[in-house]
Design goal:
This protein is an alpha+beta fold. The chain has ten helices and eleven strands. The strands form two sheets. Strands 1, 2, 3, 4, 5, 6 and 11 form a seven-stranded mixed sheet that branches. It has a four-stranded antiparallel sheet with strand order 8-9-7-10. Strand 5 and strand 6 form a beta hairpin. The radius of gyration is 19 Å and the shape is globular. It binds adenosine-5'-triphosphate and L-homoserine (HSE). The site of L-homoserine (HSE) has 13 residues, from strand 1, strand 2, helix 5 and helix 6. It catalyses: L-homoserine + ATP = O-phospho-L-homoserine + ADP + H(+). Catalyzes the ATP-dependent phosphorylation of L-homoserine to L-homoserine phosphate. Its EC number is 2.7.1.39. Belongs to the GHMP kinase family. Homoserine kinase subfamily.
């Protein structure tokens, strides 16, 4: 059977950073943030050429091991076949291994780019299949759901198939991220979690996660109790003591702060007027950054779309 035809034109894909868990929503809740990686992919006559600027420029592989390329390859297989050659240009702004969804962003960008350069790609790989494939590669759905859909997302698994819905976060919420200098691989942070948890802790998290949906969408004044977690943050403390200390310090000052994703970044869900003041609280070991909420999720943009610094 003949493989698919490919578009000659390059495509540009923009993918947002994401914060998963948000306290009690372990492996299910996610929030898309206004900090983006941009990727340009073009089908070429032969070979694989990768350019990387920004995060990971000195460390990422420039061959088939590159996560985005692996995601492109997996998607091309599903779409019916591989192109003869590929050129990939990455402008990376999302820090790696910090709990801001860099791996999900790379995976989603790769799959979306493969679909966009394949003639008839959207019919062969619809949005549900896209979520499913990205989740399969990443291993959990929370970051990929927020990356693909934007906004505040709730992801779950139905008979082993990833599903997600998007909700609109309250506009008054101003995320502030406190990013430490050193990364912590998600795999390491997941390795610290126990296989079972006390029933009372599971029950507490279920209640807070439900409350968080109301707090993030309509009643931000409830964010402090709504972001309490008993399932993952404290278990991960040995790998990120300073992050947990900062979360506790902010929370005791009344700021709804959580570990972002698998850490070690700390996310504060500030009220709009207080965000700049909160951003100054952390001290010199942290890069504090006030970010917008992303409401669109991953998008295919015109090639000449300007870059964004955030
Ligand atoms: N833009 C990228 N291009 C290629 N590989 C990437 C890119 N971003 C991340 N990666 C790969 O993913 C790894 C980081 O993934 P990891 O899951 O540990 O952290 P994260 O995704 O940044 O955080 P979290 O999953 O907690 O939000 C990097 O070390 C790198 O191997
Ligand atoms: N839910 C995941 C997010 C990591 O990206 C975790 O906490 O391990």
């Amino acid at each position: 059977m003949a493989g698919p035809a490919f578009r000659a034109a390059a495509v540009r894909v923009r993918v947002p950073a994401t914060s998963a868990n948000l306290g009690p929503g372990y492996d299910s809740l996610g929030l898309a943030l206004g900090l983006y990686d941009d990727v340009v992919v073009r089908v070429a006559d032969t070979g694989l050429h990768i350019d990387i600027a920004g995060e990971g420029a000195d460390t990422l592989p420039r061959d088939e091991d590159h996560l985005l390329v692996r995601s492109l390859r997996t998607a091309f297989d599903l779409l019916g076949g591989q192109p003869r050659g590929l050129e990939v240009v990455c402008a990376n702004r999302i820090p790696h291994g910090r709990g801001l969804g860099s791996s999900s962003a790379a995976i989603c960008a790769g799959i979306i780019a493969a679909r966009a350069v394949t003639t008839g790609g959207e019919a062969r790989l619809d949005d549900r299949a896209l979520l499913e494939l990205a989740t399969e590669i990443e291993g959990h759905p929370d970051n990929v759901a927020a990356c693909l859909l934007g906004g505040f997302t709730l992801a779950w698994s139905e008979s082993g198939v990833a599903r997600a819905i998007r909700m609109a976060p309250a506009e008054s919420i101003a995320p502030v991220v406190f990013v430490p200098a050193h990364p912590l691989p998600t795999e390491t942070a997941r390795g610290l979690l126990p296989r079972t948890v006390p029933h009372v802790d599971a029950a507490a998290n279920a209640g807070r996660a439900a409350l968080l949906v109301e707090a993030l969408t309509r009643r931000p004044e409830l964010l402090l109790p709504a972001t309490e977690d008993r399932l993952h943050q404290e278990y991960r403390a040995p790998a990120m003591e300073e992050s947990i200390a900062l979360v506790n310090r902010l929370r005791s000052d009344g700021v709804p702060a959580v570990i972002s994703g698998a850490g070690p970044t700390v996310l504060a869900l500030a009220e709009d007027g207080a965000a700049d003041k909160i951003a100054r609280l952390a001290g010199k070991n942290w890069t504090a950054n006030r970010l917008a909420l992303d409401t669109t999720g991953a998008s295919v943009l015109p090639l000449n779309a300007g870059g964004t610094s955030q």
